[in-house]
Amino acid sequence: NSLNGAFLPRPCFGQLSLRTTASTWRCTLSIRSSSSPSAIVINGKAEAKNIRDDIKIEVSRMKESIGVVPAEDSSEEEVLKSVSGFNDDPSVHGILVQLPLPSHMDEQSILNAVSIEKDVDGFHPLNIGGLAMRGREPLFLPCTPKGCIELLHRYKIDIIGKRAVVLGRSNIVGMPAALLLQREDATVTIIHSRTINPEEITRQADIIIAAVGQPNMVRGSWIKPGAVVIDVGIKRVEDPSAAHGYRWVGDVCYEEASKVASAITPVPGGVGPMTIAMLLSNTFTSAKRFHNFQ
Ligand code: NDP
């Protein structure tokens, strides 16, 4: 481990990595276990395609019925004016502010300018507030956490009464994921960077959602046999043996976890495609709401 550069993920069981920090040469030795993983692979890519296909059919039906045309992207200039224009334009049903913005712009004032009815990202404080409060319904759920829950539903994984652990508490993933699981009647614990003994807490979970941005942090030994693992994390790490010199790594050590978990999302091909599908879904929901379309 002392040879590993800080940019490297923790090596997983069955995959030994040896590297130096010197930029002139690197060596990676991989030993993969021959025993095959037992967990069901939760295929976000396939489910996302199903969702996109369904929305495509529904959008065609809606277009035929009321002739709505989706809006074009906004320009980078006069963003506030554009946001205001999109807010007022009944043919625009969703507004997404692609971050980061150029440094001369105030991110918060632009985000706050988005009408809550068109906040398809679900990040508006009123949407998050609605998510957190009992008896309130947010207009939109944040896309990545919504995608995680959608995968659990589509794979018929019980949530009610289950112990869930969410690793990470960011505004865009961890915190809303924990709120959503709670809404689904799971008993939820959140792990963050100051949590003492995250391994022990994670091991109690029936459902794990990992969103820390720390490659391979969740090891096989952290997972209760039969638990369901949703890996949101995705980081690009150098790998000279890979075709492009890098590979994508999640927060969960897939090789180890897939032997212990009952179901697990791969990285890539798990949560990422679902995020995009949920953005489409939120935008379509908004369009239907605007046109009172059933
Ligand atoms: P942030 O950096 O905003 O938040 C990371 C969270 O993880 C923080 O709450 C932080 O704790 C916690 N954390 C960091 N290190 C540790 C640690 N060692 N132990 C315990 N907790 C830790 O990240 P995001 O939420 O934006 O993203 C998380 C990951 O998900 C990233 O890999 C990102 O690329 C990926 N992602 C994937 C998406 C997808 O569609 N697949 C969409 C969005 C994100 P604290 O609050 O104490 O600082």
UniProtKB/TrEMBL annotation:
The keyword Oxidoreductase applies. One of its GO terms (molecular function) is methenyltetrahydrofolate cyclohydrolase activity. It catalyses: (6R)-5,10-methylene-5,6,7,8-tetrahydrofolate + NADP(+) = (6R)-5,10-methenyltetrahydrofolate + NADPH. Belongs to the tetrahydrofolate dehydrogenase/cyclohydrolase family. One of its GO terms (biological process) is photorespiration. Catalyzes the oxidation of 5,10-methylenetetrahydrofolate to 5,10-methenyltetrahydrofolate and then the hydrolysis of 5,10-methenyltetrahydrofolate to 10-formyltetrahydrofolate. It holds the Pfam family THF_DHG_CYH. GO terms for cellular component: cytosol. PANTHER family: C-1-TETRAHYDROFOLATE SYNTHASE, CYTOPLASMIC (PTHR48099:SF5), C-1-TETRAHYDROFOLATE SYNTHASE, CYTOPLASMIC-RELATED (PTHR48099). The keyword Cell division does not apply. Keywords: Hydrolase, Multifunctional enzyme, NADP, One-carbon metabolism, Oxidoreductase, Photorespiration. Residues 142-289 form the Tetrahydrofolate dehydrogenase/cyclohydrolase NAD(P)-binding domain. Homodimer. This is Uncharacterized protein. Residues 71-121 form the Tetrahydrofolate dehydrogenase/cyclohydrolase catalytic domain. InterPro entries: Aminoacid_DH-like_N_sf (IPR046346), NAD(P)-bd_dom_sf (IPR036291), THF_DH/CycHdrlase (IPR000672), THF_DH/CycHdrlase_cat_dom (IPR020630), THF_DH/CycHdrlase_CS (IPR020867), THF_DH/CycHdrlase_NAD-bd_dom (IPR020631).
